[in-house]
Amino acid sequence: MPRIIVQKYGGTSVGTTDKIKNVAKRIKTYHDRGDHVVVVVSAMGHTTDELIELADKLNSNPPRREMDMLLSTGEQVSVSLLAIALDSIGVPARSFTGSQVKMMTDGNFSNAKIEMIDRTRIDEALGENKVAIVAGFQGIDKEGNITTLGRGGSDTSAVAIAATLGANECEIYTDVDGVFTADPNKVNGAKMHERITYDEMLELASLGAGVLHSRSVELAKNYDVVIHVRSSFKDIPGTLVVSEEKLMEHIRVSGVTIKNEEARVTIPDVPDKPGIAAELFGALAKADVIVDVIVQSSPSNGKNTISFTISRKSVKEALPLLEKFVEANKTGKIELNEKIAIISAVGVGMKSHVGVAAQMFKALADNNINIEMITTSEIKISCVIPEAQGKSALKAIHDEFI
Amino acid sequence: MPRIIVQKYGGTSVGTTDKIKNVAKRIKTYHDRGDHVVVVVSAMGHTTDELIELADKLNSNPPRREMDMLLSTGEQVSVSLLAIALDSIGVPARSFTGSQVKMMTDGNFSNAKIEMIDRTRIDEALGENKVAIVAGFQGIDKEGNITTLGRGGSDTSAVAIAATLGANECEIYTDVDGVFTADPNKVNGAKMHERITYDEMLELASLGAGVLHSRSVELAKNYDVVIHVRSSFKDIPGTLVVSEEKLMEHIRVSGVTIKNEEARVTIPDVPDKPGIAAELFGALAKADVIVDVIVQSSPSNGKNTISFTISRKSVKEALPLLEKFVEANKTGKIELNEKIAIISAVGVGMKSHVGVAAQMFKALADNNINIEMITTSEIKISCVIPEAQGKSALKAIHDEFI
Description:
Two copies of one chain form a homodimer. With 402 residues, chain A is an alpha/beta fold. The mean pLDDT of chain A is 90. The first copy, chain A, has helices at residues 17-32, 47-58, 64-88, 120-127, 153-165, 198-209, 214-223, 276-286, 315-329, 356-366, 390-401, and strands at 4-9, 36-41, 93-96, 103-105, 114-117, 131-135, 138-140, 146-148, 169-174, 195-197, 227-231, 239-242, 255-271, 291-296, 303-311, 335-346, 373-376, 380-386. In chain A, helix 2 (47-58) runs antiparallel to helix 3 (64-88) and helix 6 (198-209) runs antiparallel to helix 7. Chain A has eleven helices and 18 strands. The two termini of chain A are 41 Å apart. Chains A and B meet through helix 1, helix 2, helix 3 and strand 3 of A and helix 1, helix 2, helix 3 and strand 3 of B.
């Protein structure tokens, strides 16, 4: 049986016809050695943004069904161009829309979830020794309407196809070399991982490491698909994202990331009554304000202090809601700090290594960095610190552990 | 029962977002008065050419299936943008790809023929008081591959939908005011028809009057769909294309057209044996050389002279084939005249009015224009003349009849 390889190329990897030619050459090396290759492609470069701009000129609040109809053309252009490029170097290929491979999703336009993929047409193409090229990011609902999976959804398409086909590997080609212990642009000595676990990747992705779409990692974890993050421009091994059992040894800290542009909100003297937190965060969620770190002190005299972080650009939207909450519940005055950052260390090894948190706090203290809030999960420790000290905090923690 | 109106807007009518807004406003007036409106749209402006250019950079001979996959995105962009524009002025709309309305075609990529349309989804949209917007130019074959109908195919899509729905009218919006007795840019005093027959329109279209795609006119004739050619920029009545019975009186000449950039080929002393014409024109057809006027003299001494016209740019391709024919059949030397034009007068009235041809030849003679070849059909008379005299010939014949 030939190996089945699923490869996904992002928008920057197919941004020009020359780049498409390079992608075609890379696919050819796999096809020539007898692999069955299924390729998932995103829209070229800034196509999606350009289409959104066109729609914006017509309607400030365009219907989501029609936006999905519009945006899905970007990937359709990429898949056909890639098939055309492959044909010119003698590699038979066949492109497919989401509709053609029955990438069935729910009807939640612009953020649809994949429910099922019909592998028939992909298998047919592979059986004819053709490369199957599938448009990422798009699917269809039960009525045959075109849906899209949300930004970065092509990663999810690729992993879903790999899971459906039982592929040996899902290669995600991108413009970085792999997954690093910290952003190499910010931290000297950041190292590339050979392997990392799904959970670490999930924590890193949600912290803004930005290499993989979180949903794709969750899906890969659920179906045990090995994700291989690689550069589409260099021929280097990259990083494998695997299950915990496939890692021989668990290093304590596999990545350090920082999230800037955050704001901290503190509300003192919140009455300690059931449902009060739900009331507060429910109101924010309704207005699409994403809350990250939440810390609530133990009650004293029937009053709590609740602190949480939101992105700085959502402050304007959040404040009126918070003031309504303050008035309704007669809490203390809102304290707002818009000059904070969140620094996090992630590592599966934390589960079995004690003292990681203490070591992290000490590294920050040694560098005179004040910790304003702390939260921990099984594999992550996050500290809210003054934004001005973000860079030195990143370096201190990276040096300490890696 | 509300009236069902099918409207088709060409690429220039939806070339910019401002133009799309205008189209939306026009549709709104129909929707507001209770009509059921189905709209067929072409790709915006030069989109199709730009996509072809991208493909050309990758492959000088791209697979036709993949070209259809690529080009069909142009119409998909237009239909979604139009739906978005309609929504912004309060008109509910729903866009559909060829696949979604099951515009079933044969599998002849880039020049597919429509076999059937499923009206279910269009009827659903109309039943919900929505404007149904269907991507022109595209369909799907039995396997679900995307096909296209060839250049100008959106006219055909619109007429096919009108026929399927039993629509009262198929309005074709374009950048000209209607169908004229001659090209108004070339002939002073050219008049716009209120009505014209399918057959006249067919002769005029194939002669390069260029308002309607011939296939759409044939289809309209077969299904008795009234085509209404109108300007998308002005609010004027335009021209109705109808069956012969719907014309009260048949004027003798309804249009005069000229085709430039033609070349005449004469082969003398062709042996008068069965199959010789088939041999000659079969070879040209195989090389996709389109032959227009053909004249064969009566045989004398077992030899014929065969003359015909081809487009000037296909001369280079045709010559080697013709020389092969000459050698194989020991005919006389090829005579080539690359400075000719074909002028034609078209009119259903010719059938019942005698002397139209004689009157046309006299008008040319009175202006010292030499006629090199003549062919006639029931409703058309064509003369090959020197290209330099084209303009005065056009004026002479137009003045004579109109």
